[in-house]
Design goal:
Rossmann fold; alpha/beta
Length: about 270
């Protein structure tokens, strides 16, 4: 989460008041949060107190209903970050320019009964995208096993072709909305174009990018959501190469590359072909 710093100092009402005064002439949504560290996480109640103190200083007509309301109506996100017991940082960012609308960029997703951590990554990606497969839409999930992404997709009523040599969870294998193709993602080709292509494979990034580019170039899918695993070194050059492959060789448009809260050494790619 990036923002312009307004003030910093000891966590307290004075800091919250000073920050609120700086943005009181705008439509404001207040986000109070801690750093995601063992030291800072226990300070969440203190962050919540700062948030309440800042909101109390804002005229009611200037308070947005949510971060999404602030974005849609041209408001700002007031940031109150408690970094340690001795330091809080206040700032603001235009809601439309924010890298994430979640406080501190920490978009926590409930995994429910999904078989793996992968489900949380997909839920966050669809939340960021603001779009998801609807009932009856056709999806392909490359590298699907054991079924984390497939499960979330069928829960929306989508039909999923799950491609993976390994087995799916038993409940998915018998689900009428799921067709399991036990084959390599690199060998599979759809019989007809589909609405969505999903991919979360632990594989070399350039080879995955070439695979996704093939799908775009051949018009096999309209929407793309994929995770790209990053190397230990030279991550930025790799990201530029992946992006070039997807756009120039694959024809994917409106490409967004983000490292989401539930990602680790990877990024999430979202795009569409038209």
């Amino acid at each position: 989460m990036g923002f312009q710093v307004i003030a910093s100092g000891e966590p307290g009402a004075d800091l919250a008041l000073a920050a609120a005064k700086r943005v009181a002439d705008r439509l404001v949504w207040v986000q109070a949060w801690t750093l995601d560290t063992d030291l800072a996480n226990p300070l969440s109640p203190l962050a919540a107190e700062l948030g309440e103190a800042a909101r109390a200083q804002l005229p009611e007509e200037r308070r947005a209903r949510s971060a999404w309301d602030a974005r849609d109506r041209g408001g700002v996100l007031l940031q109150l970050c408690v970094a340690s017991p001795e330091l809080a940082i206040a700032g603001a960012v235009e809601a439309r320019d924010a890298a994430s609308l979640a406080a501190g960029g920490r978009q926590r997703m409930h995994r429910g009964d999904a078989p793996s951590r992968a489900a949380a990554k997909l839920e966050e990606a669809l939340e960021v995208l603001g779009l998801s497969p609807g009932r009856g839409e056709e999806c392909v999930d490359l590298g699907a096993a054991p079924g984390g992404w497939t499960r979330r997709l069928v829960s929306r009523g989508a039909r999923v072709t799950a491609v993976d040599p390994a087995r799916l969870s038993a409940d998915l294998a018998s689900n009428r909305l799921v067709r399991h193709v036990q084959d390599s993602a690199f060998a599979y080709a759809p019989q007809a174009p589909v609405d969505w292509l999903f991919c979360d494979m632990a594989w070399r990034p350039l080879e995955v990018a070439q695979l996704l580019a093939k799908w775009g170039r051949r018009g096999w899918a309209t929407h793309l959501v994929a995770n790209i695993k990053l190397p230990m070194k030279d991550k930025n050059p790799m990201l530029f190469r992946v992006r070039r492959i997807l756009e120039e060789e694959g024809g994917w448009r409106h490409l967004r590359v983000r490292q989401l809260y539930h990602d680790r050494d990877e990024v999430t790619v979202m795009a569409r072909r038209l």
